[in-house]
């Protein structure tokens, strides 16, 4: 039986407690990307980013 080939990125994820390691291999490249994420620090960073974004957007903008 013939199966039509398709192109897809290769992704592997390992989770160990609060740590997530992700290996990504795009189909258009010979490179691989390894990402390390510490979940508690990631959530703290997102909260901090949202705080400063809301603080900046709440200020009235100056016109031209």
Descriptive overview:
By secondary structure, the chain is an alpha+beta fold. It has one domain (10-58). Helices cover 31% and strands 31% of the residues. It has 1 helix and 3 strands. A 3-stranded antiparallel β-sheet has the order 1-2-3. A hairpin with a 2-residue loop joins strand 1 (10-16) and strand 2 (19-25). The radius of gyration is 20 Å and the shape is elongated. The mean pLDDT is 87.
Short description:
Helices cover 31% and strands 31% of the residues.
Helix content: 25-40%
Helices, by number, come to: 1
- Rg over CA atoms, rounded to whole Å, is 20 Å
Overall average residue pLDDT: 87
What is the total tally of β strands? 3
The helix/strand order is EEEH
Q: Strand order across the biggest sheet?
A: 1-2-3
Oligomer: single chain
Rough outline: elongated
Strand percentage lies at 25-35%
How far do the termini sit from each other? 66 Å
**Biggest beta sheet summary:** 3 strands, antiparallel
| Count of domain modules | 1
- Structural class label: alpha+beta
Unreliable parts: none
What are the salient characteristics of this protein?
three-stranded antiparallel beta sheet; 1 helix; 31% strand; single chain; alpha+beta; 64 residues
Question: How is the secondary structure organized here?
Answer:
Blueprint: E1 10-16, E2 19-25, E3 33-38, H1 39-58
Antiparallel strand pairs: 1-2, 2-3
